[in-house]
Design a protein that fits this description.
CATH architecture: Sandwich
Strand content: over 45%
Largest sheet: 7 strands, mixed
CATH topology: Immunoglobulin-like
Structural class: mainly beta
Number of helices: 1
Distance between the termini: 52 Å
CATH class: Mainly Beta
Number of domains: 1
Low-confidence stretches: 28-66
Number of strands: 10
Mean pLDDT: 76
CATH superfamily: Cupredoxins -  blue copper proteins
Order of helices and strands: HEEEEEEEEEE
């Protein structure tokens, strides 16, 4: 194997190590230095629970917003139901824009802020626009199906 091949393997191993570090790090409550800059990055984690309660799959999607704009989140639930619980992160005082589409008719309820909107096929998505005034963890669920589809974490 040539030097280029060894370098490629080394770079791939380094990238894999960084990704694993990000995915496996503990969820600390302290804000990261990146959240204090002009452009804040929020990370949406999607957790899918499998048949065995000991296993779960987590994927992360990054959504970058500026301090002037709202924290924007999108949750899409197919007709077959949620594929896991998305973790949405905001900071207290943020303007939040949450858009939820459902593949079936139901009411979407954001607990703690007590917001409820009906949506489904053929209807506009449920659009929640509010200021994150209260810190904590808040379930977002479908009312009739009683399925949690997301969790909004508001940090001080």
């Amino acid at each position: 194997m040539g030097n280029a091949g060894r370098i490629g393997i080394g770079v791939a191993a380094l990238v894999a190590a960084v990704v694993l570090f990000i995915l496996l790090r503990p969820d600390d409550e302290d804000p990261s230095p990146a959240s204090e800059t002009t452009a804040a990055t929020t990370t949406d984690e999607t957790t899918t629970e499998t048949e065995s309660e000991d296993e779960e799959t987590t994927t992360e999607e990054e959504d970058t917003t500026t301090e002037e704009g709202p924290a924007q989140f999108r949750v899409d639930v197919p007709a077959s139901g949620p594929q896991g619980v998305q973790r949405l992160n905001a900071r207290q005082g943020d303007d939040v824009e949450l858009v939820v589409t459902l593949g079936y008719h139901d009411d979407v309820h954001l607990h703690g802020y007590d917001l409820l909107i009906h949506t489904g096929p053929g209807l506009p998505p449920a659009r929640f626009e509010f200021e994150a005034t209260t810190p904590g963890r808040f379930e977002i669920e479908t009312e009739l199906a009683h399925q949690q589809i997301a969790e909004l974490r508001v940090r001080p």
